[in-house]
């Protein structure tokens, strides 16, 4: 039976030729045979350079992909937080506006009977109220003022308490919407000058700011 083995014995450069010499020795029971194989050294260098460049390129690409993935994840997280904050702020504004209006109407409905309107005034007829507004007592006029002021205060307080951010602008937004209602009422029924100044000047924006300030005071954490 023949036995066979292969040994890589030497590698050297042929003088000035740019070749690598691989001497291969094959031996068996019949004897030894030496074979010489010339491999261009420049091709081996190019192959090694290409392999190193490829590995570096792959590493750079992997790093770039990882960085992009990290940035995308961070952006998605921020967008989710921003969306949730916007939804919460909108909900806070709606809740404040609705519940503030309910407080407004509840005060008018519950307290107005304590201050009867002038004789001959129909409370369900705007023209009748407008024709007799000069006969209204101070108490009768203060009822809508307190209804407007407390409704705005309560609505702004709820909005500022629920909102995620921009608490003051949202609270003042409640005051603005209630102010529009107050202006519409004065346009429709009129009233004494002192009442219009008091109602428009005090019952809305100042009350909205007080609602915001009350939230800050309770939370003991000033907001902008």
How does this model look, in words?
The protein is 67% helix and 13% strand. The chain has six helices and three strands, in the order E-E-E-H-H-H-H-H-H. With 224 residues, the protein is of the alpha+beta class. It starts with a strand and ends in a 5-residue tail after the last helix. A three-stranded antiparallel beta sheet has the order 1-2-3. The N terminus is likely disordered.
How many DSSP helices? Answer: 6
- Helices and strands, in order, run as EEEHHHHHH
Proportion of residues in extended strands: 5-15%
Give the strand order, joined by hyphens, for the main sheet: 1-2-3
Give the rounded overall mean pLDDT: 78
Report the sheet with the most strands, covering strand number, pairing sense and barrel closure: 3 strands, antiparallel
Q: Catalogue the unreliable spans.
A: 1-39
Backbone shape: rod-shaped
- Structural class call reads alpha+beta
Q: Roughly how many Å is the radius of gyration?
A: 44 Å
DSSP summary, beta strand count? 3
Q: Portion of residues in helices?
A: 55-70%
- Give the CA-CA distance, first to last residue: 95 Å
